[in-house]
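Example with several molecule types.
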Amino acid sequence: MEVMAAAAAADGFRPLDEESLVEYIKATPALRVQLGEQLEGLAVKEVGDGNLNFVYIVTGPGGSFVIKQALPYIRCIGTSWPMTKERAYFEMLALKDHGRLCPNHVPEVYHFDRPMSLIAMRYLKPPHIILRKGLIAGIEYPLLAQHMSDYMARTLFFTSLLYHSTLEHRKAVAEFCGNVELCRLTEQVVFSDPYKVAQYNHWTSPYLDHDAEAVRDDDILKIEVAGLKSMFCERAQALIHGDLHTGSVMVTNDSTQVIDPEFAFYGPMGFDIGAFLGNLILAFFSQDGHANKDNDREAYKRWILKMLEETWNLFHQKFVALWNENFDGHGDAYLADIFNKPELQLLAQKKYMTDLFHDSIGFGAAKMIRRIVGVAHVEDFESIADESQRAFCERRALDCAKKLLKERRKFESISQVISVIEEISAR
Ligand code: ADP
Ligand code: SR1
Ligand code: MG
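Resulting structure tokens for the full complex:
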């Protein structure tokens, strides 16, 4: 530990705690300003319930903010799994890029300190809660699909070659290539470990022992997942969030805010869309485990499926509308003087959106599988205390994911995906 502290001092890094953070704030003009220079009576509370970092809520009489600090390891595992703290730099870059493109749904960055791997951003005050927690509690969010489709359509379209010139695209791709360690973490925990015996894999044992083994023995699945992994590594399609699960979204009845893009890089759009849709499907299959005599959760399950349908359909609509509005722009992928007939334009868009749909289903399914037999599970299932009930819910989600992943190319609409979910849920 002494060696680590000395090394940390050399690069200007100091892990903060609730006490030392107050001193840091007092010495940092950009943060003092956010507090209206009223530095007495500050309340600091560490609230990090994510897997990787430390998050502090700072409130004072003149203002508030959130401080997020990355330490050089993965929080939920401990110092035995080192991880670059440069992830904070990429999170800040993505918050700024995505915030510029979609300010309504991304918290503002107030301050960044690279040596300290520390970001200060807008505090999303209560009643904002993490969407995953809202889904577990059975709360409906009437604007969720509108907001998430907006966020995904805008951030993905405006950072793709449908809008970028190749010059600006390659420059941005090169910058985010620096986030290689976080990409490698995803490559390992999403696309590799669930398909082999690996140190940190776990599942609801003994109930799912055979299911986990079946994943490791499924040749077709392995081939499909290797294809998705290759796409994840090779395809610099847009600046993706990189970890867009329902724990990365904070919501109220009328506000939706996307946080935590530390895995951001130029990757396949379907990885973000799939992460969000796949986590909604996990939420769906977990509902039976949260049902009780007062609430069978059937109406809520229907609401989740409606969100699934609306999110994809609205995304499709908005993304194509942005494409149409910008067809004559400087996007280098589909040049207006080559795609110079409306019917050709339409054909190109149809092909692009169909491929994107299939990618999204594939990535979404892969993200579902890793949450059941990989290292990092989700509270949707983990909060089901009865293990046999939890395993029952997880097995259905796993079966659904395997089917979606293997058969994704035959789906033409999200309603066909929903039919598969309903079929498995009726078993
Ligand atoms: P990690 O990178 O460790 O996953 P997150 O960015 O997901 O960390 O943040 C962990 C938790 O901190 C979130 O689940 C949320 O409760 C809280 N949090 C993070 N950012 C904010 C914010 N801007 N406003 C309010 N709470 C936040
Ligand atoms: C050790 S894996 C931790 C996981 O948590 C993050 O939110 C990412 O999803 C990552 O895969
Ligand atoms: Mg998180």
